[in-house]
Amino acid sequence: MKFNRQTAIFALFSILFLWLIKGDLLYHMEQYSYFSSSGDFLAKFFEQPGGLLALLGAFLTQFCHFPVLGAIVIALSLSLLAYLVRKAFGLEGKKALLALAPSLFLLLFITRMDYTLYHQKTYGLLFSQTLGFCAAVALFMLYRRRLAGKKLGWLFVVPLIIAGYPLIGSYAIVAAVLVVVEALRVKNNLLPALASTLVLGAAVPFLCANLPGLYGRMNRHFAYFAGFPYFEFVGSFWGFVPLILAFIALIALVFADSFGRRLPVPAFVASALIMLGLTNWDPNFGAVLKMERAVGDQDWDKVLQVAAKHQEPTRAQVLYRNIALYQKGQLTERMFTFPDGAAPLKTTADVPISMVCSVPVEYYSGMINSCERSSMEFSSAFSKSVYFFKYQTKVALMKGDFELAQKYLDAVSRSWFQGSWLRRYQAFIDNPALMDSEPEFTVLRPIMEFSSPDTELASSLEMCMLHHFENLEYVNESAFEWQAATMLSWKEESFFIQLFFDRFQKHPEAPISKGVAEALALLGGTSGDYDIMARVAQAMSARQDVLKQFTPFANAMNMASNPDSPETIKRFKDRYGNTYWFYYYFINDIRTN
Amino acid sequence: MKRLLFILALALTLAGCVPSGYKDASQTSEALEIYPDYTGVVVPVNIAPMNFKVLNQADAYVVEITSASGTIAVKGPVVSVPVKKWHAMLEASKGGELTYKVYVKREGKWLCFADFSITVAPEPIDEYVTYRLIEPGYSYYGQILLRQRHLTDFKEADLYNNSLISQPVQQQCINCHSFQNYSTENFQFHARNYSGGTIVVTGDKAKKLDFKTGDLISNGVYPSWHPTEPLIAYSLNLTQQIFFTREHQRLEVFDLASDLCLYDVNTDAVSYIVNDSLSFETFPYWAADGKTLYYSSAYLPTFGANSATDVTSITSDIRYGIYAIDFNPATRSWGEPRVIFDAPADSLSAVTPRPSPDGRYLLSGVGEYGSFHIWHDSGDIYITDLQTLETKPLDALNTDRAESFKSWASNSRWIAFTSRREDGTYTRLYLAYFDQQGNAHKPFLLPQEDPDQNHRLFKSYNVPEFTKDKVRWDPKKLETVVLSDDPVKTHQVAPAS
User: Which of A328-332, A420-424, A450-454, B351-355 has the lowest mean pLDDT?
Assistant: First the structure.
């Protein structure tokens, strides 16, 4: 197999693009995937037609643990497709450039992925569609080289669909359609090829879905979508667009002989522009993936670096920022110095914030049962993954359920490349005493002493957190950080004041962080209640610096004639953008789901 | 090519061979560790091979199994006996024992552990057990399977599964399978949410029920088929769950109200059995003679179904006792409820009564409070002697983790139950011998072809129910019934007096 120069350049471009721009996406896909060589795991892939593609995809996704390696393997699969297309359609010389078009669209399939990934149910999406196209083109090439033009050559579609559908799903029908188009091109055996493709293409999926004893877990609604990512993109047409474009490109390439000499370059450029134009460039999506990875690595500085960069963050970024600040002991000290907001998730699918980040956020805010619940719910409803198994291991460790921790850790161990993580957590299972000196656990334990209402009836992540932390009793400094941060985030000022006074009464010497001091100054200054004002003044005696800053802010606010105007907001942001006061007055419409 | 195949065949044969030299082993005092722990258990004469894995570290393993028909040697550490050979051994040892001798090789020397044995009870177990496999989740549904396992080998098949119809957004829960009198001729299960309804199968016919009618507070929930009549007793439950954010117990499931009703399979009529507004009645189960219905009831005089009391705040004060009510199958009339096990008097809560088919004993699930003991570590199995009404914990079956659903085999000699003893989260299915003297013996984990299967399985076993035969409905055939958009409506009638 020899790749031509164009394919080599394309491969290099794909590697660099995927590694440098989509590296965090590849890592995410690997963490949200799972592979085990056990028979029961492998057997699950054959419950549905086309499962072979997902199985190979799940296996190859493991390489994305190292994004550069993942990028290389993806680029190789895309290059393989380009090679097969070039050979199958006889694209030589300048026309060889056209062989890259389907691969570009399949690269687009990966690069345009968005938050819909958070409800992926099918393993191996990074590879399965490319492999499906490779199989379809290889089968078409076999037909074109050996059988096209022969009298009974059209009979190829019979074994193609009957044997191909169970293995590669509807990609077998894609191959059969290419055979029909080829028959149309050469005006030979069109009718029998078309008839057999129509009949078998309709009948084989129908029979697989309906005959008792065959595919006893197959959903007949999706019989004609087998092998495609129907669970991920149903209701989200855009998810299928790259695949449709790749299919159209293949159909068009059947007629490549009749293309003029000038077509290949513009067609290639158009394909490349479509690929670049439809790629998901959403900076928040990239930031969420980067932060998710940094949280997994417990690299809190990196989380904060990313948080500082994005001026209109989603709630997922805000929450990741908060857990990083808490880990560094700076939650209420610095939380209002970062950009804040509630930018919507840019996706056509219905993906709540909870689905994106609840597992790590709940874990690192000490709501470990909620973390376990979210992991269990998402991995049940969507798919088991290394990511969820890891958090389930950690929760089981925190709860002292060591047999359970071992079960989850063993599950992680069946996937490749998890060695350092496995060694770290196996040590805690083997010697739980090590947990007493491990910051990951010691930082969380004090919040777990926090007594919350025993119900968790709220539906969204942040409402659960508010419900959990909306407790007016001071327990310890760690819990106070979360209580105060949550109440201030949601501007629950009366609860915050009560909580603070409870703390002040129990520990009058406890330091007052910047965020808390700013909140006290604001709430004391605007409450109109002399008792509160007096108590705030007493508590703030050590933070005169904040009170001094508040006076000019209050004056500026009083003098602002049109506080909602962009100019006013900008003016206040420039001067007070890193204060609770700015957050309180100007960061509005915080919505979460 | 032929040579290659020959070498491959030879290699495979040699790999399966038992290593030599183990007969000269010296005895070791080290404790033998095997998974599952099958040491000293009593098994039915028709059970599947009790495959296990030796956990003690070694370079090589041999296990000798001696039965009345002779001794076989099996290579370890996974000890797996072919089904046919196993059954010949069990048949020969009926009423006797299989003796296991485990040898391990370490640093070139063979060591032998102390023998252990498995007793072969002469009484067979019903050939099939049906259970639900489900992740121990809470609100979301993944793949849920109603599976039927052939207990004499490892064959397992879906009775039904929700993958057949679950949609990306619309998911379906399936639960509460129930058979009439250990036969698969008549059975039922519920589908919830997407295309929900109660599926009732009678012989070759099946229908989907839209159960809720009249003033019933809910659809039919926990079912029990009458052993002979075309009747199903259901509980009606308004169920809620609350989640704990940090406590060891993750959640609590409880009822806001519950009643009992009787459904006539032939006429689709539903009538109340008990609907006392001051009590929560649930978990009905028929005695084998069909003349008594056992159930659980929590008497809550300070609040009932019509009270505004917030049940959520007092879940740990709700305690159930076991009651019985007589039934006349001829007139379909009911007697007065009577107490069988006054668990609240002992500050306990007893639910899910299961009378033995011979009518002598009754099993119940007992915890400190509440009705959903699967989430309580305190959940244990108790037994009541129905002649003396003496109740005690069935210690042989209980651990400090949750034991919950249980059922009797049709000959009253075997109990299937679920327990979270392995890891506190994933419920596994255990079988235990219950002898004629009323003693339960050490339970054993449902045998699997690969003993590690339980470690790799991330689903729980739910509601084990014995049957004598296999369900003959194909899941796809049931799917068409589930998908029916014209379910049969029940109608409410007054109970017979």
Answer: A450-454
Chain A residue nearest residue B248, CA to CA:
A399
Secondary structure of residue B374 in the 3-state scheme: helix
Residues A500-520 have a mean pLDDT of: 94
**For B475, nearest residue in chain A (alpha carbons):** A216
**Chain B stretch 162-191, residues whose beta carbon is closer than 8 A to a beta carbon of chain A:** 163-169, 171
Integer Cα distance of B392 and B385 in angstroms: 9
End-to-end CA distance of chain A: 51
* Spatial contact of A443 and A455, defined as CB atoms under 8 Å apart: no
Contacting residues for A545 by C-beta, under 8 A, at least 6 apart? none
Reported as a single tens digit per residue, the pLDDT across A198-211 is 999 999 999 999 99
Summarised one tens digit per residue, pLDDT across range A338-379 is 999 999 999 988 899 999 999 999 999 999 999 999 999 999
CA dihedral in degrees (A462, A464, A469, A471; nearest 10)? 130
A388 touches chain B (CB under 8 A): no
The sign one gets for the Cα dihedral B88, B90, B91, B93 is: positive
Please say whether the beta carbons of B42 and B50 come within 8 A.
no
Task: Kindly report whether the peptide bond that precedes residue B230 is cis, defined as omega within 30 degrees of 0.
Answer: no
3-state DSSP helix/strand/coil percent for chain B, to nearest 5?
10, 45, 45
Interchain proximity B163–A219, CB inside 8 Å? yes
Q: What is the SS3 assignment for A2?
A: coil
Q: How far apart are CA B383 and CA A509, in angstroms?
A: 59
A450 touches B: beta carbon within 8 Å: yes
- Cα torsion through B287, B293, B296, B302, rounded to 10: -160
The residue behind tokens 């957190």 is: A465
Q: Is B476 an 8 Å CB contact of chain A? A: yes
Which of A384, A343, A445, A455 minimizes the C-alpha distance to A120?
A384
Q: Any CB–CB contact under 8 A between A399 and chain B?
A: yes
Q: What is the DSSP string of A547-584?
A: HHHHHHHHHHHHH-S-TTSHHHHHHHHHHHTTSHHHHH
pLDDT above 70 coverage of chain A, percent? 98
Contacts of A234 in chain B (CB under 8 A): 167-168
Residue A178 has pLDDT above 90, yes or no: yes
Q: Residue A537: pLDDT above 70?
A: yes
Q: Is A477 helix (H, G, I), strand (E, B) or coil?
A: helix
Tell me the shortest Cα–Cα distance from B320 to chain A, in angstroms.
22
B 440-459 → A contacts, CB under 8 A: 450, 453, 455-458
Q: Scanning the structure block, which residue is given the tokens 């940094």?
A: A294
Mapped onto helix, strand or coil, the DSSP state of residue A178 is: helix
Asked whether B124 and B95 are in contact (CB, 8 A), the reply is no
Cβ atoms of residues A333 and A513 within 8 Å? yes
Q: In chain A, positions 298-357, which contact chain B (CB-CB < 8 Å)?
A: 350
User: Is it the case that residue A452 has pLDDT exceeding 70?
Assistant: no
Q: How many CB atoms lie within 10 A of CB A415?
A: 23
Q: Give the integer Cα–Cα distance in Å for A570 and A395.
A: 43
A451 pLDDT higher than 90:
no
Low-confidence ranges of chain B (pLDDT < 50): 14, 305
Whether residue B246 and residue A36 make contact (CB cut-off 8 A), yes or no, is no
- B336-389 residue pLDDT tens: 999 999 999 999 999 999 999 999 999 999 999 999 998 899 999 999 999 999
Taking alpha carbons only, the member of B78, B94, B77, B79 closest to residue B42 is B94
Choose between B173 and A291: higher pLDDT. Answer: A291
**Token pair 């007629």: residue:** A255
Q: Which value does ipTM take for this structure?
A: 0.93
